[in-house]
Structures are given as C-alpha cells and as structure tokens.
Design brief:
The chain has 316 residues and is α/β, with parallel strands linked by helices. It is built from twelve helices and nine strands. It folds into two domains: 134 residues, Rossmann fold (3-Layer(aba) Sandwich); 158 residues, 3-Layer(aba) Sandwich (Rossmann fold).
C-alpha cells in the first residue's frame, strides 16, 4: 500500500512480552502505529491483511483488548474469530501443543488473553503462526506499547521522559518498566512492601536502561516518586481473580492513590494515565481521571493503533 512500508523483519514472530522484541523493533512498531493512526484519521483504507483470519482466545473478560482487536483486524482487511477458551477442547484436557498445531493450520495469528504467562509461551513454542499476548497475570505488552505511543505523542520523544507508577506492581507495571527501560525513559515505581514488582524483572530492566540512557527505581514513598515526574500512571488495585483481597488491598494501597495533590506535586505540565478499567475513588480520583491533564482516553484509543501495527508487522 502506497505510503505505508511494512518491513519483513518481524514476519512470523510472536509478541509474548515486551522483552521478546528489541528496542529497535519496539520503536518500529511505534512508528508504524503512528502512521496507521494518521491514515485512519484521513479515512484511508489499508488492506494490509486481506484474507487473513486472526483467532482471539480469551480466558478473561475484556473491553479494550477485544474491541481493539476486532476493529483493528477488520480495518486491516482481515477477519477476527472470537473463541472463548471454555469453548475449545482445551477446557476438556486437549494439550496446548495440539491446539497450537491445529489452529496454525486454520489461522494467520492468535491473540491470547489468559492467566498464566506460561500458556502464551507454550502456544508460541508450538504454533507456526504469530502468537500475541493480549494480557496475562505477568505481562501486558500491547498495553505497554500503547502507553509508550501516548507518551511519545505528548512529549515528542521517549528518551528522558520521567514516569512515576503508583500502586500495585502488577502485570501492567511489569510491562511499563520494560518498555520504559528499553526506550530510554526514567521510571519510578512506588509500591508498598508486598506489592512490588519482581526483583529479577527489575534487575533486567535496569540492564536495559543502562544501554538506553534510562533508569529504573522502586521506592516506598509515592510523594518521592512523583516529584519532577512528567507522567503519573496507575492501574486497578484488585485485578481479576483477586476479588477476595479487595478490602485489604484498599487499605494497603490507599496512600498511593493518584489524586490532585500528587499531580500538583509533580508539576504544572505533568499528565495522568490509567490503562482502564478504573475504579474511581480507589486508585484514582474522578478529578484526575476526567480532568484536563488526563491522557487516559488517548491511551485507550492507542490500543487500536499499536494492535494493528503488531499484526501488520508479524502476520505473513
């Protein structure tokens, strides 16, 4: 398609976690997402995946991942096939290996939204088509790409941007640390004891940051984290499967709420981000979420553009 160049370097590759792609490959995806967003604003049809069918295997409920997937595939000229995991023979004991081998004969790619990261990795090991991680308990790479795209749109570049993450060091935090480190950002995660991101992952992110000029810190004090930050980021405190811990989590994480005071402490140009769904009054206040310094809705929209970029780059 004229005006859009799709290199072959990532064809057939899976995107199971941020670290599966190099810094240059991540920037390639971000550059393409920017082009696709521009072309969409011009109402241009880009049939980059004609005749391709992409399977969506979901074990978890979804708004943004499912809708952006189905819309994105359609806008690229392909077809989405939504398959709840409970409807597959996987639910009756068929192996992941057999499922991956069979579905590779029918589909051009698979997006998986599930609990265990190991399930996504096993699909990628045995499938002969690209496997895209739509969220696991450990990582959320598509969200991280959308986050990076949103930050770059706001500040013009990622290198040197200061990001403060507040709250639970969960899958979103893990992937944010990874992409920040691989793109030269300075990121501080403020998480209480018992909610910190995995130390092995933090150490690996620091190695990445050393190569890109970025930095990665984990601190206990949210006020320390937000000072001089340009982006304040939070996520839900009680994820799917943690409902019985809700009250304890509210109590433990209350000092880490993204509110107007922290936004003002960061500075007049600081912006707020949240990957949604949001629980207003828990991890974020209504004034911040719906205020004029919120990038949340741009962030949500950008899930569509990065998803399209990942598929355009990987599907043969």
């Amino acid at each position: 398609m004229a005006g859009i160049g799709i290199p072959d370097t990532l064809k057939g590759r899976s995107f199971t976690r941020v670290s599966a792609w190099s810094p240059d490959e991540l920037r390639l995806a971000l550059d393409l997402a920017r082009e696709l967003k521009l072309e969409r604003s011009r109402r241009k049809e880009l049939r980059l995946l004609p005749g391709r069918t992409v399977g969506l295997i979901f074990r978890k409920a979804s708004t943004r991942t499912r809708i952006s997937s189905e819309v994105g595939i359609a806008e690229l000229g392909g077809m989405a096939l939504y398959v709840p995991a409970a409807d597959l023979q996987l639910a009756r004991g068929e192996s992941t290996r057999d499922t991956a081998l069979v579905l590779s004969r029918f589909l051009s790619a698979i997006v998986i939204r599930t609990f265990a990261q190991s399930e996504v990795e096993e699909f990628a090991e045995y499938a002969t088509i690209p496997i895209v991680n739509g969220l696991t308990d450990d990582s959320h790479p598509l969200q991280a790409l959308a986050d990076a795209m949103t930050i770059r749109e706001r500040f013009g570049d990622l290198t040197g941007v200061r990001v403060a993450y507040l709250g639970d060091g969960n899958n979103v935090c893990n992937s944010l640390l990874r992409i920040a480190a691989r793109t030269g950002m300075h990121v501080v995660a403020a998480c209480p004891q018992g909610y910190r991101p995995d130390q092995t992952l933090v150490a690996a992110c620091r190695e990445d940051a050393a190569a890109t000029g970025g930095s990665v810190e984990v601190v206990d004090d949210p006020r320390e984290a937000v000072r001089r930050a340009q982006v304040l980021y939070t996520d839900v405190w009680t994820s799917m499967g943690q409902e019985d811990e809700h009250e304890r989590r509210l109590s433990d994480l209350a000092p880490f709420r993204l509110d107007e005071e922290k936004l003002e402490l960061a500075g007049p140009d600081a912006v707020a981000m949240h990957c949604l769904p949001a629980h207003v009054g828990d991890e974020i206040t209504a004034g911040v979420l719906y205020g004029d310094r919120s990038l949340v809705w741009e962030q949500a929209e950008n899930r569509l553009h990065v998803y399209k970029a990942v598929l355009a780059l990987t599907v043969r």
